[in-house]
Amino acid sequence: MARTCFLSSTTLLLLLLFQYCSVYMAILTVGSVAAQTNISTDQSALLALKSHITIDAQNILTTNWSNSNSDICNWVGVTCGVHHLRVTALNLSYMGLMGTIPPHLGNLSFLVGLEFRNNSFGGTLPTELSHLRRLKFISFRFNEFKGTIPSWFGSLSKLRTLDLYGNQFSGSIPNAIFNLSALQVLNLRNNELSEIPNLIGSKDQVERLFVQGNALKGHIPIVVFNMSSLTILALAQNNLSGSLPDNICQHLPGIQLLNLVNNQFDGPLPHKLWQCAELLNLVLAFNNFNGSIPRTIGNLTKLTELDISNTTLTEISLVGNQLSGSLPADIGLGIPNLKWIVVGMNKLSGVIPNSISNASKLTYVDMTDNSFSGFIPNKLCALTNLEYLGLYQNNLTVDTSTPELNILSCFTNLRYLRVFILGRNPLNSPLPISFRNLSTSLQKLSLSEGKLKGSIPNEIGNLSSLIYLNLELNQLSGLIPISIGRLGSLQGLYLLGNKLQGHIPNELCQLTRLADLVLGSNQLSGFIPSCFGNLASNLRKLSLKSNLLTSTIPSTLWRLEQVWYFDLSSNILNGSLSQDIGKLKVLSYLDLSSNHLFGIIPSSIGDLLDLVTMSLAKNYLEGPIPSSFGSLKGLVHLNLSKNNLTEAIPKSLEALLNLKYLNLSFNKLQGEIPEGGPFTNFSALSFVSNKALCGAARLHVPPCKNNTLQPSSRKASSKRKVEVATEATLLPQSLWRRVSHLELLRATNGFNDSNLLGSGGFGSVYKGTLSDGIDVAVKIFDLQLEGAFKSFERECETLSNIRHRNLIKIISCCSQLDFKALVLNYMPNGSLEKWLYSQNSSFDILKRLNIMVDVALALEYLHHGYSVPIVHCDLKPSNILLDDDMVAHVADFGIAKLLGLGDSMTRTMTLATVGYMAPEYGMDGIVSTQGDVYSFGIVVMETFTKMKPTNEMFVEEMNLKQWVANSLLSEAIAEVVDANLLVAKEEDHDYVTKIDCLSSIMRLALACCAEPLDERINMQEVVATLKKIKIKFLKDVGRRVLLNRPRVQAL
């Protein structure tokens, strides 16, 4: 019988549930595998990127991105989405990475944000990045990408921000970018782009467009001004030209910042600028705009900063254009908040409107270098808040008909006035006695070339805060007031080109802060005050030329060791020149011509290695031209004409490759005129009217008689070189002072501990005083130490053969069987190390920078200025000694090495100091000049960070060099430099200048420490760069201190 089976309802339900779960688990398994596959794709793309990175300065990716760490969502710089577990953002900014971007990165298909700021990625961008269709944000700011900007950016339809600032992209901006409907910010600043496409404005969604600092040229396509969504348009620092459309604001209703500074725009300023109602910043300075300033500019009621004009209005700055016409008569009306009006360096004319007095909050008025005329309005004296008034180089005059209304008198009402510049105007006025009532805050007073008459009032001594006084090129007469000696803060005194008479008052010697003293082209007579030697600490420029001075040159003037400009020409000075003239080590300009000087020319002038111009013409000097002049490698102008010089022209002058002008005429010179170096460019005029010169026919002198046979063989030439080298080696030692062991015992009180200056690797150094009163440093070698004898010989030999103002000078060597000592110049200010780590030392940026320049010059001489390169091998702060004037001298040559001719390196078993020695020195014993360069870089970093390279904070991969490099990458240099060098931004007017200077110094230091060694710069490049940094720093600081000019941020 057939059997029928019935399942219960419960059993049936269980079967159905089991089948559903099986299907669901299968789906989950498939989904999990797919997700795993996709995250593996992302991992492969990231590892491909890692493999294309050639330098990982901070070892971040090296240690963090690895197969052993399989969870890529926890990798540094990687962000994953919550739902899909795919990479959605990649940020590798500020990691010090160098390399290229591989095409594999295009596989990160869920990527929304891509940011590689401040690295060194280079090459071109791979086309595969166009696959990243979800991207909304891209920043490759501050890298080294090259080539044209890829047009495939136009396929990234969701892109909102594209930031390529600070790369090397060139060519035209692709039209395709402006088809991106979501794009809001486009930053292409500081590249090498040359063209703006005509279709740039076809889409109006872009809100911020930055293309300043490129190579754009020609006119701005008109469609740019149709981009109605723009709030920021920055086209500064290009070569764009043409005029601005008068209706510029019609299609830019929301524009808030318009920056066109530093281009070639011309034509008038648009009269309808007032239609840009939302405008906050308008920067048009340094173009070629002309015409008048539109009065309607006052209608820009939201303008808060004006780098061409401003009205809410605190500043009007139209400096450096070609604007013409007159200032609006009502310029001072309706702008009660105006504080600055700066219209200098234009072509403005007419009178200065009286309405300017209505802007009662004005603190800064600069109208220099225009063509304003008429009387200087007395209404200016109503601006009682005025701190700066610059009217230099116009056609302004003063009303002298009523003395009490003389504008020069009414300025006594301006109690806050700090800078008053009125020079190069036909004032035709005497200096009023009421000047005594000028602001005691006045720091700069310049009335040069103003046709001023009468005498300098004695009351000028009441201006107690004065730093700069310029009365040059006027018609002032009478005496120099002795009251000027009360101006204790004075740094610059300029009285050149007047009719001043009488003696130079000794009271000027009280001006110990004086840097420039210019009294030339007057009728001063009598003696040069010997007390001028008191100005040695600060005086940089001394000009007494074209007077009636009759004394000898006081010996105290040779103490002015900071002077770079020294002009006593065209007086009646007599006597001979002292060898002490060689102490003026920084002298660049020397003119003693047209006097009654006699005697021989001091050979010590050859020590003035910075000399560029020298004239001793029209005197009664005799004897030979010193052969030491051959050391003046920077000399450009040399005039020794009209003297009684004899003997031959030194062959050493052939080494003066920069010499462009030479005049040896009207002397009694004889012998052959040199033919090498600069002499190939001089004509007969340089040698006319001498006794018996001979040489080339082109010089209009007879040919020389060939009385001697010239050695022609290589052997003879080699022999001559050996003889010269031997003479050079022996000569300095023959000039040493003889010092006995007994005298050194007496000088140091028996090597008493109270005389101990310090101890080093091979002995101790004592302070001593020799029998003639000379203070010395005596370095005693401990002969029980291995290597001490060799160290003595090496240091004695090295120091005896080198001579440079920034190397320690040897006085004598004392050598007995059981006693070895060096007698050296005593350095009263100790070592750089002492100063760096002294609690009470005042050690600002400039002092440290000067010391680094000194050390660099010393190393440059050792590496490039001696017959064979000398490697110091152990440069560090304790081996840098400072004299009375804080001039640095490199010392301790105990392990120095001489490289053979043609050799660039050698090897040693003697190690230098840990932390300062180059890597190749410590690992392989390789000694080269580049090792010194590395040590110098470390010393520079320590000098400005006050952080030793052996500090305990430096562990594992972090060291002083890396610490500084990281700070530069993150623009945080203020966090690593010595805190004593900077104060808070709001308290330090030079904060930005200092940061810029310190950043440049640290970049140079890192270049010195480059690895491998063949990528390091040399000391000649170091010296040149340091000097540029110093000059820029002095100019930037000096511009603020002396001129107090406004800092226009956009410029």
UniProtKB/TrEMBL annotation:
<dbReference type="InterPro" id="IPR032675">
    <property type="entry name" value="LRR_dom_sf"/>
</dbReference>
<keyword id="KW-0325">Glycoprotein</keyword>
<dbReference type="Pfam" id="PF08263">
    <property type="entry name" value="LRRNT_2"/>
</dbReference>
<keyword id="KW-1003">Cell membrane</keyword>
<dbReference type="InterPro" id="IPR001611">
    <property type="entry name" value="Leu-rich_rpt"/>
</dbReference>
<dbReference type="GO" id="GO:0005524">
    <property type="term" value="F:ATP binding"/>
</dbReference>
<keyword id="KW-0808">Transferase</keyword>
<dbReference type="Pfam" id="PF00560">
    <property type="entry name" value="LRR_1"/>
</dbReference>
<dbReference type="InterPro" id="IPR001245">
    <property type="entry name" value="Ser-Thr/Tyr_kinase_cat_dom"/>
</dbReference>
<protein>
    <recommendedName>
        <fullName>non-specific serine/threonine protein kinase</fullName>
        <ecNumber>2.7.11.1</ecNumber>
    </recommendedName>
</protein>
<dbReference type="GO" id="GO:0005886">
    <property type="term" value="C:plasma membrane"/>
</dbReference>
<dbReference type="InterPro" id="IPR000719">
    <property type="entry name" value="Prot_kinase_dom"/>
</dbReference>
<dbReference type="InterPro" id="IPR008271">
    <property type="entry name" value="Ser/Thr_kinase_AS"/>
</dbReference>
<keyword id="KW-0812">Transmembrane</keyword>
<keyword id="KW-0418">Kinase</keyword>
<dbReference type="InterPro" id="IPR017441">
    <property type="entry name" value="Protein_kinase_ATP_BS"/>
</dbReference>
<feature type="domain" description="Protein kinase">
    <location>
        <begin position="751"/>
        <end position="1034"/>
    </location>
</feature>
<keyword id="KW-0067">ATP-binding</keyword>
<keyword id="KW-0677">Repeat</keyword>
<dbReference type="InterPro" id="IPR011009">
    <property type="entry name" value="Kinase-like_dom_sf"/>
</dbReference>
<keyword id="KW-1133">Transmembrane helix</keyword>
<keyword id="KW-0547">Nucleotide-binding</keyword>
<keyword id="KW-0732">Signal</keyword>
<comment type="similarity">
    <text>Belongs to the protein kinase superfamily. Ser/Thr protein kinase family.</text>
</comment>
<keyword id="KW-0675">Receptor</keyword>
<dbReference type="GO" id="GO:0004674">
    <property type="term" value="F:protein serine/threonine kinase activity"/>
</dbReference>
<keyword id="KW-0723">Serine/threonine-protein kinase</keyword>
<keyword id="KW-0472">Membrane</keyword>
<dbReference type="Pfam" id="PF07714">
    <property type="entry name" value="PK_Tyr_Ser-Thr"/>
</dbReference>
<dbReference type="InterPro" id="IPR013210">
    <property type="entry name" value="LRR_N_plant-typ"/>
</dbReference>
<feature type="binding site">
    <location>
        <position position="779"/>
    </location>
    <ligand>
        <name>ATP</name>
    </ligand>
</feature>
<dbReference type="Pfam" id="PF13855">
    <property type="entry name" value="LRR_8"/>
</dbReference>
<dbReference type="InterPro" id="IPR051809">
    <property type="entry name" value="Plant_receptor-like_S/T_kinase"/>
</dbReference>
<keyword id="KW-0433">Leucine-rich repeat</keyword>
<keyword id="KW-0597">Phosphoprotein</keyword>
<dbReference type="InterPro" id="IPR003591">
    <property type="entry name" value="Leu-rich_rpt_typical-subtyp"/>
</dbReference>
